[in-house]
């Protein structure tokens, strides 16, 4: 399910020389995929906002992508609802990764609010096109008011 993403650590393992292997944002920790997606201060801030939006307990912190996606499986709810949450989580992983690349290759630094808005918009378009949510309007989506459609 999760595409293996080659980053500096992988490149180093493959003996491709890099300047350093520290995280672009904090400059302290090693830049592993899990650090980029879940461990860095900015990604933690994105996840926290996403969990608030999804009305999921916000004390939750993920150590990595796999753990985040496994967490969805353990939630209480219908399969339809979990599918929605899973889609949002995958969109979150993707957008945090994308923003990391924008920083590296375009020197563009996006705020966590900006990233969260993109996640809402991307998952909205994706779900509208295929799930039971094709009648949902944007305002309801941003409030994550879907329980009458997806129990
Ligand atoms: Zn970092």
Descriptive notes:
With 151 residues, the protein is mainly alpha-helical. It has one domain. Helix content is 58%, strand content 0%. It has seven helices and no strands. The model has no long low-confidence stretch (mean pLDDT 85). The chain binds zinc ion. Zinc ion binds at residues 23, 25-26, 29, 35, 40.
Question: Would you summarize the structure shown here?
Answer:
With 151 residues, the chain is an all-alpha fold. It is built from seven helices and no strands.
Total of domains = 1
Distance between the termini: 25 Å
Low-pLDDT stretches are none
What molecules are bound to this protein?
zinc ion
SSE arrangement:
Blueprint: H1 8-13, H2 33-39, H3 41-53, H4 65-73, H5 79-106, H6 112-130, H7 138-142
The structure holds zinc ion.
